[in-house]
Amino acid sequence: MFADVLYRLLGVVVLILVLSRLSDWIVVHLQGIGLLLSRSPQVATFFMFILLAPGILFHELSHWLMARLLGARTSGFRVWPRRTGRSKIQLGAVQVRGAGRLSMALIGLAPFLVGTVALIFLGGWWRTPTAGMADWRSWLSPTGWERVQAFFTHGDWPWRFYALWVIANSMMPSAADREPVRPLLVGLVLIVGLAYFVGVMPAVPPAVYQALIDVLDLLAAAFLLAVVGNTGVALLIGALEYLLGWLLGTRVHYGR
User: How many Å separate Cα 30 from the centre of its chain?
Assistant: First the structure.
């Protein structure tokens, strides 16, 4: 069953990476549309910020709440874009002091952790069977697609989709958020690898493996819906940007 857990874990990681890349693309190209319409970088940033403002507030509040729960001191709470370099924009910030390494890692991961829970509830996955959803073969199968499609059959799906969309595009840890997390992840991988090679894994009760499989399937379902939604929005943004560029006789050149 250890192999089943690893297989599903890989599926979840792939979905997270795809969601992260889609989110980065959407944030950049929303600014591109704003730039085409206004010819002003400041207005373009404001355009993107307005569309994602609830998610940005969610992101910074998650940092703040986690820091307060862990007893860290906070200051400088800001939910407003600020240019920090020639091509870098910081959409919000919370200053944290007096926290240890583990606490800083949890504070950095807070938007992702809280956002994941939000995706599960907004997608209705807490009441929908998710068995096998971390298996990539289910992502294109009729059964897996029907589960995702069921989200759009509820009358309240538009507001839930918008909430899911802004959270999915605001929950990923920034470079500063990831810095204290990286050593902990490396340590965890080393511990699991060592446990595998010394033969500890077969001693783990099957019930524990099954619980992990159930959790990973639930996470995969939530992230898969977010990926599908972001893919649709990205296609819409790309088409709109192309149409505006054609009508205005210009296009945005993105730096590499």
Answer: 17
Sign of CA dihedral 227, 231, 233, 234: positive
Q: How far apart are CA 18 and CA 37, in angstroms?
A: 29
Closest CA to 41 of 52, 31, 30: 31
Alpha-carbon distance of 222 to 207, in angstroms, equals 23
Q: pTM of whole model > 0.85?
A: yes
Beta bridge mates, 74? 96
pLDDT digits (tens, 9 = 90+) for 59-102: 999 999 998 898 888 887 888 777 766 667 777 788 888 777 78
- Find where tokens 């319409």 sit: 37
Cα dihedral sign, 54-59-62-68: negative
Neighbours of 242 (CB within 10 A): 11
Please report, for residues 68, 136, 205, the alpha-carbon distance to residue 110 in angstroms, rounded to integers and kept in the order given: 12, 27, 30
